[in-house]
Specification:
Helix 2 packs across helix 9. The chain is mostly helical. The two termini are 31 Å apart.
C-alpha cells in the first residue's frame, strides 16, 4: 500500500527526479524520505482517530499553501536554468539535506488527498485485523513501502543521470520548473 500511495508521479515525484539529477542521490533520498515521513504522519493521525471532517475543514488552506510552495520550487528550477551552469554547483551546495527533507515533508502534508487515502486504507484493512495495534502496523508498512518506492525511483534516476550530458540535465531544470509552476498554479486556482 505504501508503494501505491507514493508511486503516482505528481509534483513530489517530479521534485524528487529533479533534485536527484541536480544535487545527487542524497538529495533525492532526502526528498523521498520527506514524502514517506509525511505519509507516515498522516497515517498516525488517522490511526489515532482524526476525523475526516477535521481534515476537510482545512483542505482548501492546505491546497492553497501547497500549490504556492510547488510554484516557488518551480520558479527556483527556472532560475537555476537561466542562471547557467557555473551557478548550479553553488545553488546545490547551499541546499542542505534537512531543508530538502523539510520542504518535501511540508509539501506532502499540504495534500489532503494523502490523508483521505490513509483513512480508506485504515478503515478497510486496519480495523479488520482485530487488534488495536493493527492500524499502527499498517502505518509502518505503508512507510516502508513508500520509502522503498522512493529508493527505487532515486536509484533509477541516478543510473540514468550517468548517461545524460550536463547540458541535458540543465534543460531538465527548465522542464521540471515549468511543470511545477503550472501544477502549482492549477492547485492554487482549484483551491481559490
Amino acid at each position: 500500500m505504501g508503494i501505491a500511495v507514493a508511486m503516482p508521479v505528481g509534483p513530489i515525484g517530479v521534485l524528487c527526479i529533479s533534485r536527484t539529477l541536480r544535487d545527487g542521490r542524497p538529495a533525492g533520498l532526502a526528498t523521498g524520505i520527506g514524502a514517506a515521513s509525511a505519509d507516515a504522519s498522516y497515517g498516525v493521525l488517522v490511526a489515532l482517530g482524526l476525523s475526516l471532517s477535521g481534515v476537510l475543514s482545512h483542505a482548501q488552506t492546505l491546497r492553497l499553501g501547497g500549490g504556492m510552495l510547488i510554484m516557488v520550487l518551480g520558479l527556483l528550477g527556472l532560475w537555476r536554468f537561466f542562471a547557467g551552469g557555473a551557478d548550479r554547483q553553488v545553488i546545490g551546495a547551499r541546499t542542505g539535506l534537512f531543508r530538502t527533507w523539510l520542504t518535501t515533508y511540508l509539501l506532502t502534508l499540504s495534500n489532503p488527498m494523502t490523508i483521505l487515502a490513509f483513512i480508506g486504507f485504515i478503515a478497510g484493512l486496519g480495523s479488520g485485523a482485530g487488534t488495536r495495534a493493527a492500524p499502527f502496523v499498517l502505518v509502518v508498512g505503508v512507510f516502508i513501502g513508500s520509502l522503498l518506492w522512493w529508493l527505487v525511483l532515486v536509484q533509477g534516476v541516478h543510473l540514468v543521470k550517468a548517461r545524460l550530458g550536463r547540458g541535458l540535465t540543465r534543460w531538465l531544470d527548465l522542464g521540471s520548473g515549468v511543470v511545477l509552476v503550472c501544477w502549482g498554479a492549477l492547485i492554487v486556482l482549484g483551491a481559490a
